[in-house]
Design brief:
Layout lengths: L3 E6 L4 E7 L2 E8 L5 H15 L7 E7 L5 H18 L2 E5 L1 H12 L6 E8 L2 E7 L5 E8 L8 E3 L2 H4 L18 H6 L44
Parallel strand pairs: 1-4, 4-5, 6-9
Antiparallel strand pairs: 1-2, 2-3, 6-7, 7-8
Helix pairs in contact: 1-2
Length: 228
């Protein structure tokens, strides 16, 4: 019997992917970051139905824990946990930026240090940087686009600020996540648990002081592989 894995990420739009026995099978993407509630479950249902897969035939569900916006991360993680409970299977978390980096370094390695960016809104970006081997060396962090390390860049954030990343996006740099590849190679990503990595306070919480990212604290995601 095939071992099916479903990957879900709602940190940057909606990305879901399906893999079996370590091979990518299919994926679905919704780029809007404001349609998580109405998009996610129908997308999952359609993807599974397209391949004749029932929920109980899944062996594992993997879910991105961010960094990302409060509402999007909650929807993805709660959905993954609920489906896993219903199917009686395991669920594990992965870092969103690390998953995009794995897509890049696996399919078309940049050959040099690189940075992955996603839109954090409020005129900021989430980012993490990686050495030429794909090991994360800095981040995840949140900050102004001008503060992002000046390296070759990939990820959906480069399209939000094209003037900032002009000349820094090489051919083959990912503009999103291949969730099917993530599902297929989930064992190569650290299991980071299921606590969402917001990096800043939820929008619904009234700020008492200026919001800032936690640096080097409990929300730091483990590396794809630890750099020396």
């Amino acid at each position: 019997m095939s071992a099916w894995t479903l990957a879900i990420d709602t940190a940057a739009g909606v990305n879901i992917g399906l893999a079996t026995d370590g091979q990518p099978v299919d994926r679905r993407t919704e780029t809007s970051s404001r349609r998580h509630v109405e998009s996610l479950q129908p997308m999952i249902d359609e993807l599974l139905a397209a391949h004749g897969i029932g929920l109980t035939e899944l062996a594992l569900i993997a879910v991105g824990i961010g960094p990302g916006p409060f509402t999007g991360l909650r929807i993805g993680i709660v959905t993954a946990r609920t489906l896993a409970m219903a199917a009686g299977i395991g669920v594990r978390g992965f870092g969103t930026l690390d998953a995009i980096a794995m897509t890049w370094f696996t399919t078309n390695p940049p050959g040099t240090p690189a940075v992955v960016v996603t839109d954090a809104r409020r005129k900021e970006l989430y980012w993490a940087s990686y050495d030429a081997s794909g090991s994360r060396v800095a981040g995840p962090a949140v900050g102004a686009p001008a503060a992002v390390p000046r390296l070759q860049a990939g990820g959906p954030g480069v399209e939000v600020y094209p003037e900032v990343f002009a000349g820094r996006v090489p051919d083959g740099a990912p503009l999103g996540m291949d969730a099917a590849l993530v599902a297929a190679r989930i064992e190569e990503l650290s299991d980071v648990g299921l606590e969402p990595a917001y990096l800043r306070k939820p929008d619904a919480e009234a700020p008492k002081t200026r919001k800032s990212a936690l640096v080097g604290g409990r929300l730091r995601l483990p590396s794809l592989k630890e750099a020396p």
